[in-house]
């Protein structure tokens, strides 16, 4: 008699364990959505299921936090565009033209990823104060772009370094300049890496708290992260609009990850394979 368990039986414990881990990780998300659909005096007193769901919290969140939502969207999209405009040609130059000091420059970019955001925010504050960029959307776009460019350059360069040089050289032989070859050949081939860099920049900017807290001090320019922070102290007796705001703030990031997950997977690993 064969006493060895079948492959499906051997996988069952790991499947159960994976489901348990997934349930633990998703429970805060469920509780956030559940609390947003109920009217209660406190988060701890919220029923486990929304027996009588209501959208009053969402209506209040949209009316009071809609402006902050638009501000965050403007800052995130502006940071993505500016980051890609700077990082994409910089990554191409570092991958295509090997000059003395390139490795040192790449090391400096890597080291910048280890600098805490608070250090960057404190360094930018006196500069932005001199340039009158405090409490300004443009200032927050520039600050988040400065924080996002190093990672975007490293990610896109890793992918462009794997592009066969013969493709670019063939375009140059046919009469195309470096700019034409870059726009017509390198950028389309590097689409996965560029989209991945754009998504990471968007998510980092969308969830930014420290830069916004340091570089703004008026309610006129308030990203959604600061809006939720201020909302908690003002709405501690009614968590429904607070949770509704958190749910709405999670929607853009979730949609981007769902629709662009194949680009993220391809862009994140392709640069390591030649």
Give a structural overview.
InterPro entries: BP-dep_ABC_trans_perm, MetI-like, MetI-like_sf. The chain crosses the membrane at residues 12-33, 69-92, 104-125, 137-160, 181-203, 239-260. The protein has 274 residues and is mainly α. It has one domain (63-270): MetI-like (MetI-like fold, Orthogonal Bundle), CATH 1.10.3720. It has twelve helices and no strands. α2 packs across α5 (137-160), α3 packs across α5 (137-160) and α10 runs antiparallel to α11. The longest helix is centred in the first third of the chain and has 41 residues, at 56-96.
- Strand runs, count: 0
- Report strand %: under 5%
Largest sheet: none
Helix content: over 70%
Shape: globular
CATH topology: MetI-like fold
What's the pLDDT, averaged over the residues? 83
The CA-CA distance between the termini, in Å, is: 49 Å
Low-pLDDT segments, ≥5 res: none
Quickly count the domains: 1
Report the C-alpha radius of gyration, rounded: 24 Å
Order of helices and strands: HHHHHHHHHHHH
Question: Helix/strand-derived class?
Answer: mainly alpha
Assembly classification: single chain
Protein name: Carbohydrate ABC transporter permease
Transmembrane segments: 12-33, 69-92, 104-125, 137-160, 181-203, 239-260
Domain ABC transmembrane type-1: 69-260
InterPro entries: BP-dep_ABC_trans_perm (IPR050901), MetI-like (IPR000515), MetI-like_sf (IPR035906)
């Amino acid at each position: 008699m064969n006493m060895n368990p079948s492959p499906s039986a051997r996988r069952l414990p790991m499947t159960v364990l994976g489901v348990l881990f997934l349930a633990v990780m998703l429970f805060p998300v469920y509780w956030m959505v559940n609390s947003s659909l109920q009217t209660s005096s406190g988060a701890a007193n919220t029923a486990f299921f929304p027996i009588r769901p209501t959208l009053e919290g969402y209506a209040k969140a949209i009316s009071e936090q809609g402006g902050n939502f638009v501000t965050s969207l403007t800052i995130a999209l502006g940071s993505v565009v500016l980051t890609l405009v700077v990082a994409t040609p910089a990554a191409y130059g570092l991958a295509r033209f090997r000059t003395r000091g390139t490795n040192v420059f790449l090391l400096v970019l890597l080291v910048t990823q280890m600098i805490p955001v608070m250090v960057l925010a404190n360094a930018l504050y006196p500069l932005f104060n001199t340039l009158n960029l405090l409490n300004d959307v443009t200032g927050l776009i520039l600050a988040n772009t400065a924080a996002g460019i190093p990672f975007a350059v490293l990610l896109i360069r890793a992918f462009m370094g794997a592009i066969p040089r013969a493709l670019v050289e063939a375009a140059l032989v046919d009469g195309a300049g470096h700019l034409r070859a870059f726009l017509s050949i390198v950028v389309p081939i590097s689409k996965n890496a560029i989209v991945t860099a754009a998504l990471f920049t968007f998510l980092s900017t969308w969830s930014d708290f420290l830069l916004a807290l340091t570089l703004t001090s008026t309610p006129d320019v308030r990203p959604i992260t600061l809006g939720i922070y201020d909302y908690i102290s003002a709405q501690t007796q009614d968590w429904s609009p607070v949770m509704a705001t958190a749910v709405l703030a999670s929607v853009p990031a979730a949609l981007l990850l769902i629709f662009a997950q194949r680009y993220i997977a391809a862009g994140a690993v392709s640069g390591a394979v030649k």
